[in-house]
Each structure stands twice: as C-alpha cells, then as structure tokens.
Protein: USP domain-containing protein
Organism: Dicentrarchus labrax
Amino acid sequence: MFGNLFEEEEEEGFASTSSRGRVAKGGEEPPPPRGRSNLCGIKNQGGTCYLNSLLQTLLFTPEFREELFNLGPEELGCLEDKDKPGAKVRVIPLELQRLFSSLLLVDQQCASTANLTDSFGWNSSEGTNQHDVQELNRILFSALEHSLVGTTGSTFIHRLYHGTIVNSIVCKECGNVSQRQEDFLDLTVCVCGVSSLEDALWNMFVEEELFEGNNLYRCAQCDRLVTAAKSAKLRKLPPFMTMSLLRFSFDFAKCERYKETGRYSFPFTINLQPFCEQTDGEDSDYSYELFSVIIHKGGCYGGHYHVYIRDIDQLGHWEPPEEDCKPKTQKKVKEEVKKEVCEPKLQEDDPLSVLTAIIAQEPSTSVLLDQLGQKLMDKIGSSWSKKFRKHYGPIGKFLQSHNDVFMLVSNGTRVALKANPPSPVTESPSPAEQTTNSDPSTPSDPGADEQQSKPEQEQGSHWFDLNDSTVTSIRESDIEKQFQGKESAYMLFYRKTQLHRPSEALNNPQYKVPLHLIQMAQEENIKMQQMREEFEATNNTVELRLHLAPSYRLENGALQPISREQNGSTTLSFDRRKTVGDLRLAIYQMQELWEGDMALTVAKSLPAGLHLYNTVTDDSVSLYSAGIHTNSDLFVWNGREVCGATILTGAEWEPVLLTVVRPFLGEDELPEVEDAVECKEGRGGFENGGPGLKREARGFAGAVTLGEVKVALGEPKESLLCQEHKGGKRGEHGAGEGGGASGWRLFPPDDMQRTLKELSLKDGDALLVLEPQSFDSSMFTLNGDVVTVTTPSDCRWLQVELQPQGGGGGGEGEKEEERRKIKVPATGNMLLGEVKLKAIEELQLQEQPPGAQYCLRQVDCTGKLLPPVCEELSVRDAGVRLMTTLTLCPGSAPKASQLFLHFSVGIAPSAGMEMDIIVENTCTVKECLKSMLDAVGLDGTCWHLRRLDWCEEVGEPLMDEDASLSELKISNGDSLVVTEGQLPPKGFLKISVWLYLHPSNNSMETDFNHTDNGHTEEQMLEAVTAGETESHPPPLCASNMAELRSVGQVEISDEATLEDLKTQVLTLPALQDVCVPTTAFMRLWQLEERRLARILRGQQLTLRKMKLTSGTDLCVQQLLKEEDLGPKEVLLNIKMAVPGERCYYPPEELVWDASRDSSPRSLRTCLAAHYSLSPDSLLLAKHQPDKHTWEEISNWSQQVSKKKKKKKAESLLGAPFHLKDGDTVGIKVLNLLIDNNRDFVTVEDEQGQQRLREQAEQRRKGGQAANSDGVGPQKKTGLTKSRKPEVALSINVGVFR
C-alpha cells in the first residue's frame, strides 16, 4: 500500500543493532539471553518492523498459535525435503512454526525472521522496504490459506477471523428490503472527523443513509425511483475482531498524503451488540477485550512500527516501569505525598544534603552520572558550576571525596547512597549489559529481586511493549498515550471475552508445542549456553605483563632489564573478575622466594625504558574496577626502591629519551660503546677517522632541569647545550659545495632552570653538547644564538676501488694484490664519467686491451655490488654520497634512458649465477623477454617474466606484456626471472600501493634514495637525521590531503588474508630496504580520492570480506611498535589547545577502544587518562575539515525517549559524529583562571570558512545565470526530496491443490 516509503527511525534501528557488549576475542559474540521480561523480541532486517509487530501479535494470540502447532509433519512435510523434486513441502507454515517455537522456548534476546522471509520469496532488498501492516495482514492470511489447502488447518484462518456484514436498503414506500452480504477479516474504520472508535462504529452500523431529493433509489418492487434508507449491520462476529484505523488520508487540495494525528480513543472492552443484526443473545456473545495495539510512529512518508500486547497466557515476567513512565496525575500525587511525609527541609547551600536528597527520592535509589547535574538544576534552580564548583570543585571529585556516603554502581555509570543501595529490580541493565558489560565483582541478590517484585506483580495478564528486539513492561494506562500524536495506534486487535484459557496453558510456553520443536529449541539452548560460557571465559581473561623488580635496574632515568637476553617480563593470564588481592596471591605463589612487602604498580614501556605510574592498593576491588585491562604492564616490587635506587613514579617523572650529539674528531676519541648506550657517527660516513659528530641515546626524567642534564652528562660548567633548529631548512645556512650543514639553537642561560617538559623536549629530540673551544674549528659557526655545523671541505672526495678481472670472488693471491684503492677529488656537481676517467688515469688502466670497458658501481652494507651508476649524471643527481667508496668493474654503464637488470632462467638467481642486461626503460615486457632469451640462446613463446619477492624467491608475474618497464615501476638493479610456461590466468586484484610522506619524518624516504633521482648531500643528512631523532610516526589525518609517493602495485587473490597482502607489499622493490620485523609493524590505509579513509584491520580476514576491489589504492605507514586494532578500536588524531591562544599543540595519535562503550564519556575518560587530567575539566570537539568548523562533543545526549523521559547514551560511532579512523578531536582544558574560551575555531578555520562562502557565492551567481537561460517554471524542482518508487507487497506460495 505504501511501498517502501516508510523508513526506520535511527533511534529504533540503532537500539536493535548496536552492540553494548565487548567484542569477542576468539569468535563471534553469542546472542544475549532474554531480558527481565522473559520474552523474546524479533530482529529488524532493516525495514521489517511492520512484519515484527504483526508476528508478535499472532504469537500472543493463543488460539492462532495452537491451531498452527496442531499441524504435523505428515501434513506439512519437512523443511529438509523442500529442495527435492516433486516434494510437497508447505514452507511458510513450517517456518512460522519454527519461528514461534524459537520465540517461545529459545533463550535469546531476539530471533531472526530471515528464514521466514526467504520462504515468502523475498530478496535482500525486501528486508529494507517497509510496507503497510494492514496490507501485510491480509496478504499473510491469504498466503497461509493457500499454503494449507488440503490440510486440517485449511479453514482455521476463516474460523478465527472471518466475519460478515449485511448491507440493507429499505424502500420507504413499499417496505421492500434489498440485502447484500460482505465478508471481512478486518474492519477498516474512519478516523477523520470522529473522536473515538465507538463513534466510527456508530456511523458505520447505526446511522442510516437516506436516498432523497435528487438522490433517489430505484426499488425493484415499485419499479420506480423512491425514497429509501441504507444501513449496514454485523451479521456474524468472529472470535477475533481486527480494527484498522484509517490514519493516512489524501488532501486533494494540496495533492499530497497526510497523517491524522488528532485524538482518537478506543475502549479496552467493547460491546458490539448495538452494531449487530441479531441482538437477542447474551451480552457475553458481543463483548470483546483489547489485547494488541500496533502503533505507528512518524508521518506518512516515514516511520516505525511497534506493538503493545497483553500477555494472555502470562508467559512473561512483568515489572512496574520506572516512575517517569507513570501518568502525570499519579506521578504528581505521589510526589506531593512524598514531599509532605518523607522529605525534610532541604538545605540548598549544603551540596551533600542536596545530592543525598536527589538520590534518595529516585525510585531506583540511584542516578545516572550524566543526569545528576540536570536533576540538581531542576531541584535548586542552579547548576553545580555556578553554585558549588568554586568551593567544592568538580562534582565528580566531590562524589569521590565523600565515598563514605556515595558509591558508584553499574560499571561506574550510576551513583547511589551507601546507606540505601539500589535494588536490582528498578536498576537493572539490559540483557546485553548483564552478560557483557557488567562488573563481575558486583554481587547480586536474586532473593531481594523476588521480594521487591512480588508486591508489584499483580495477578492476571499484563501489557508489554515489543519494539523489534527490545521488550519492556508497560502499564495499561500507557495505551491511552497512543490516542493521538505522531506516535499513535494504527491497528487494534480484540478477542471475545468468552475465550478462556485453560489453567495448564498459564506460565507454560511449551503448551501445545510439538515435541520435535521442543527438542530443537532445547538443543539450541544448550548450544548457545556453551557459546556464552566460552565467550565469557575468553572475554574475561586478560593478558598481563609482570615485570619483576630483581630483573631491573635504574639507568638513564628509567628501568632497564639487567640482562639483554631476558626482557624481565613474565606473561600471566588472569580472570579480570577476580580481585587485586587474588592477583597478589597468585604472584606470591609464582614467586616462592619473594620476601617482604609486594606492591603492584601500573607501568608503561617508553622509548627510554619502563616507567611506573600509580600503585594499586585496594585489594578488594576487581581488576576490571581497578582499570587493569589486557596487555597492562604491572611492576612487582617493594614499593620503595629497586636495586638500592629510589624510584620516582607518576606522569610528571616520565623519562625522555634524548639523542646527545658531541663533536668527534677522530678514531682515537671514540669511546667504547656500553651495553645500554648506542653510539652512532654522524651521517657524513667518516671513514679513515675523519671528523664529524657522534650520537648517543640517553634517558632523563621529564621533571629534571636542563642544568641537571648537563651535570648528568659530566660536562663542564662552561659547556653549551644546543637544540636542533627547526625554524627553516637546514641547508639554508650555507655550506661548501659537496658538504653538509645543519642548524642548532643555543639554549639561553634561563633555560638551564627549566625542566625538559617545560621546554617541550620529547623522545628522539637531539641535544648538541659543545665546549667553547669548539668554535675554533671550521666545523662549527656561531651566528647569534644559532650554531651551524658544516661538513669540512677537505672531506670532498670519493674512493674508487678496482675490482680485479673475474669479479673478485677468487683466492687471496695475486688477485688481492690487484685490489687497489685511490681517492679522487670530487664535488656534488662533478659528472660520474669524469670520476671514472680520473680513476682510470690514476690506476694506469689505459694500457689495458683495447675495447675494455669499465663502469662504477656502489656496494651495499653486505658487500654486494649495486647496479652501475649512470655516468651522464652528476654525483649529487645520482644519489652518490661523498666520502664513500665506488668499485671500478669491467662492463658497460647504462645511459640515463636505460635500465640495468639482473635476470636468471627458471629459478631464483644464486650468488654468481645471475646474468646482467641493459635495456631501454621504454621497451615493453615482451621486448625485454626476447632480449633475455636471445642473450642465453633460448627460443620459443612459452616463457614469461616474473619479479623476485623480498625473500629473493620467484614472485608475481608481469601480466601486461605490452606495458613498458617504466610503467611497471621496474628500476635499476631489479632482478627478473625468465619462467617457463604461459602467463597465469587473470582475475587477481591489482592494488596500487603508496607510501605516506611527512615533512617531519622522512626516515622511510631515505631508504629509496639509491633508486630514485638523487638528493644533495645536504638533503641526505637532513632526511637521515630526522629519521634518527623522530621516535614516533607522524599522526595521519584523514581530513588532510596526504603527501603520497607511489611504490608500485601488487597482484593478489581476493581470497588472500590481510597478512598475506602486507607480506606481498613488502616484496615491492621500493620497500625492500624498509626494516619491518613482522607485518604487525606496518599499517595499511585505504585511500579514497587521495584521502586516508580507513585502516585495514583483522590479520586473518580475506580481502573479499574487506570489500577490496581491483584498482583500490592503499597507503603504507611504517610503525615503531606492533599494532593489531580491534573492530571497534578507533585511531584518532588528538590536538590539545594552547591555553589562551587560538592554536593547538602538535597532534598525537590515540587508539580509543569503543567496543565496550562508545559514548562521549568513554572518550573523555580515555583522553583524561592519556593526559593525566580530570574528565570533568575537558571540552571535546570533532573537526569538520570540509566545513572548517568544530562540532562540540557534549556529555549530554539529545535523544529523548517519549516513554521513559530519560536521555539515552549517545554513541560517537553513529550520528551525528560518526567518528572514524584519522578523525581529528580537539581538546580544551576548562580553566576559568587561564582560559574560559570554549570556541575551538582557529584563524586558519576562519580563513577556510571565508573561502567556502566566496565559492558558494560564485556558484549561486553561476546558477542564477544558468537558470535565466532555461525555459518554463522550474522553481521547486531541486527542493523536492527524491523518494524511492513504491513497491508492491507480495508473498509467493507454492501450488498444493
């Protein structure tokens, strides 16, 4: 009737699909058990709320349910035989039987209708299209009647719902009566113009319509036009009367649909005797009672269905709803009585008295923390911040400081009084929260549950609200709220009061259910119970890393393992529901030789080492309540010292790992490298003891001053400390040609008294230590407060080594004598051809046999020869560093337009077995293959080329034989394998891989300089130094256009896992030099329009499940530690606002676990723990880069339930924020003394908004110009909302006649 014009409201759809529990570690989360109502809901397939409401009504119609269960397999057949040819299986009633038995007997929160809708012949799109529930009622009954033809149940729909109406026309002159009978399964009653169901029935069956004046009736007996009266009466009343209210009408003036939302009442019991043809029966023959009301919420183009049902057989457990759900009159009377009798005079100036009174007056004796502030304002007319914050601090701290009066319950989300704890009846979590989100250490008292529910549990049947997967108790008076409004009654179901239920059917869900369906439900219950037990055991086990004090020593401001072979940590699996005391006892049992006190302190592994934070002292709390989660680090010690050294704990003493840089003037001054200190030479490559810089990693506590650092380094008082200058490019201070220069800023004397934290020094920052006499050297230049370090000009040389004939792989005799080395003066602009000629002259190789050719080749760190350098390029352009060694080898050098390739035939090349070839980089794969085959004397067409992977094994084939080598990113020195056989079939995914480049971290970029167009030596020094000093990867933001660099393509099957994809990405030639211990050290982003869109997660998920297609662009980011993000762990880019200024500190990456709780409170708590601040002092906002605006993340929800009048928990993963990987979250610390500005907008944002306004104005002017050229009135074409076309509802039924 209405097609798919109805759309599910977000509030309802989210409630049915959101997961409040934890994400299963070992597998899929099992369905939660039934809630306190003991009734089962139905899962919404996207738009099937209308179907769910009708099915629940039929289920709670006992006579319909029992008639359906009376049909056995001998009449309906078996579902297992439905695919057999010739088998007559009545699928629809069989699936309906299974669904009803599951709703009655299976212990699950909601059942699925997927199998039932499949039996209707619906496809997947039908599940998202909503239809009219009255239309479904008629079509479903028709489908059941056709499905049951030839069975004993073929007439049960007719028996239960069929009634007749007789229409009569009485001639006023002769008295002749003309009658016509109509059948009905439901009555459609008018809503427009009437105020109640009784009025509508009176107009239909009592009022007469007169034919008079110009509207006369032709009487068959009189044979002329006469005055007559038309009326209708109910002739036969069915056991069940269904009333459909005509809420939707059509306005012919406006030519649009609309919904009648005016008041329309209906009785709970109704006597239809005045509307019947025969009225001589007993009153009970005409008396009906209401047992179901299907409600529509929304308008005529969108909405949601749910149903109020009276539990006739008392199958559910009814509990009184919360006080907010009661009618206003009852609530007001109760509040007045309570105020007069129970409430003493309130002391509004005493916050303890006010909060105690607020909590004590709640029916659940507890209040949600998020709502406590609002209730306080309602109570005294002022907020906490205005009245109490100045003297008592934030409300959260006030509650904590009065823990003798208040206590937190329900996982810290509610506050209650210790003297009057909340009852489990009124303050009960949902079934999902009970199984997955509850603190296991909180005890429950089922006895108290029964005692408190008994007075309210009246005898007889009660009403429930079945809203898709949720079932809640309601009062009978709540039905009156559905008389009017956008959420109002749409279908009414009445049953005869004569229909009585047998006593054995009460509280017995197995009544009349076939035995085979009972057994099936019992097996399903056993299976689900096992799944839940396994899930709970898996999800409550946390992996802890224990660090034992005897295995550590204090060094460089942090705790370091004594032995390099043993990292000092022990992994312990422990149940998080147990207490801290149980954990302490378990550690005592593990460490039998432990003596004295044992303190457990939360620790964290930092680049400088292990650092300690807060000590867990309360043995009675559970690990969950103590905030100890999986992969937590715990340090086990005596609480005072480690190996005689006092340990400073807390965030303020976090160690910082600095790179200490000192001048190095020769090999004689190079100290021995200790175990825990790594010394590196400056990137000048100083061979032969040349001058340069040496680097040493040292850790210092963040709270120490710069002066104390100088003392700890053992430097004299007059020595100077410098910080790397980041104000401009390093090479801008000038250096000699071919040399390298870097800038450093001198710390002023006042900075000697400031701490490392105050100076914003972080891990990896470099600290240059100089003595005053260092400026006597030409290597160091002081200009104001900037120190320039310049590579000396006498270091401009290249060493050339002659490789003897035969490749240098022979013995040590005369061939070793032929290995001669000479130094050739060189600069960055000198051509490599000139370097080769000078080397040939000095080595006196001109007299070699005529025609002998030589080339220059670099050598890697393993001694392997790299491809010959192009002699047409300069030293700088070829990426050759000065003060390095080149090898002069026999052979030809490639030109700038050529490639030097290694190749082998059949197998991966081994040492000395590979062959070389020089080809044009524009030649195709087919031409390259032919050249290789000609070089080895092979012929034929059954050959193809393959690359080598990172393991030096035969890798992926080159599929496109017509593509050029440059298009396939084949570069100098690549190895190819000539493989026998045709190319493998296509169908693999071709994925482009990009490398993320960041101006502050080019450590990965420097790994590819030997293959790309070269950099200057200054650029090389800059990149490598940045790579050494930067200890954290730069945060990636999906809102910014990333600076990307293509590193190639991979071809892989869509059945491969993410781990396989990462492994294959590492085989790309451009990434072969990247140091990645395992694939967990690499992060893959999916790109959309060159934006970082999402992180690929789930190492064992296939690419098909991740919905990756051919042509997808991926971005590689190298990590410094392992990462395995869960399905609901979000990588955020967080920026702390600078107090008093309209700017932010540099961004940081933060992984927020939203699996347990995705509300603003959870994010606020996570950020507060990260910055060691109070959650109440933080203001959060999400950056909208496309609009250059900030959307504040409030701690209050804006979604208010109509029934419960309480604010629902808001999920940041859904509307309106939709937080995802890479989103930027701004943070402000609310401090009225320093900064009370709540605006997150920066100057750059205002400039961006101005640009958007200018662009919009230009588009508007352009649109007006375009419209002026149009023809005809096109005024509102763009304003009308596009709607999906209406789709007819149908149910396919087989032929059983």
